[in-house]
Amino acid sequence: MANSQKRFDCFNLIPFQNYGVHCALGNLHCCRKYFVNRICKTANNRTGFLCDDRATCVLPSAVCNGVSNCYNSEDENPQMCSNLPKNLPAFLIFQCANPLVWIYSNQECDGYNNCGDCSDEVGSLCGSSCPAGWWRCTPVFYQFCWCIPPTFRCDGVQHCNDWSDEINCSP
């Protein structure tokens, strides 16, 4: 194959662009033309996926979920959404301590044990405090790691190992 006939996939070289665009070898102008930085900040200040309109920022967990959130459906692009999470841009995923388990990055530090081993609820990003209004304790349910939601406090049901969620409750 002659050099002029060799092709490369911009997707493999530039991870945050329109997927599947092919350029002649060495023609970086072609790739730059299709390059789109997909990182944005969502309304709750989390990293998100930027749509082609350059205004819509989609939560990572809404990417490749079978529902188009972008006008051009770029959040459901078949090349990006096949072989999850391998084909997703790295900023959209969180790798759990168990190498076989991953979650979307917006599910990290949300108070829920999404990884199954609480690895998504530890580290400097999560801090050491509970989300606003949550109660700090050692939960009975594996669904939570260090805190329980406010609706579980003073509901007459044990949610903390030490029953602290049911102490000093008004009748």
Overview of this protein structure:
This is Low density lipoprotein receptor class A domain containing 1. It comes from Erpetoichthys calabaricus (Rope fish). Disulfide bonds join 154-169. InterPro entries: LDL_receptor-like_sf (IPR036055), LDLR (IPR050685), LDLR_class-A_CS (IPR023415), LDLRAD1_C (IPR057430), LDrepeatLR_classA_rpt (IPR002172). It is a single-pass membrane protein. By secondary structure, the chain is mostly beta strands. It has three helices and nine strands; from the N terminus they run E-H-E-H-E-E-E-H-E-E-E-E. The strands form four sheets. A three-stranded antiparallel β-sheet has the order 3-4-5, with no helix packed on it. A two-stranded antiparallel ribbon has the order 1-2. A hairpin with a 5-residue loop joins strand 3 and strand 4 (47-50). It is elongated and about 55 Å long. Residues 1-35 have low confidence and may be disordered.
List the helices and strands and how they pair.
Elements: E1 7-9, H1 10-13, E2 22-24, H2 28-34, E3 39-41, E4 47-50, E5 57-58, H3 78-81, E6 93-95, E7 102-104, E8 135-136, E9 147-148
- Looking at the chains present, what oligomeric state does this protein adopt? single chain
Q: Indicate the low-confidence ranges by residue numbers.
A: 1-35
Q: How would you state the average pLDDT, rounded?
A: 80
> Using DSSP, what is the number of strands?
9
Structural class category = mainly beta
How large a portion of the residues is in β-strands, by DSSP E? Answer: 5-15%
Euclidean distance between termini CA atoms: 81 Å
Characterize the largest beta sheet: strand count, sense, and whether it forms a barrel: 3 strands, antiparallel
**Rg (CA only):** 21 Å
What's the helical proportion of residues?
under 10%
Shape: elongated
The SSE string, one letter per element, is EHEHEEEHEEEE
Strand order of the largest sheet: 3-4-5
Number of helices: 3
Protein name: Low density lipoprotein receptor class A domain containing 1
Pfam families: LDLRAD1_C (PF25241)
Subcellular location: Endomembrane system; Membrane
Membrane topology: Single-pass membrane protein
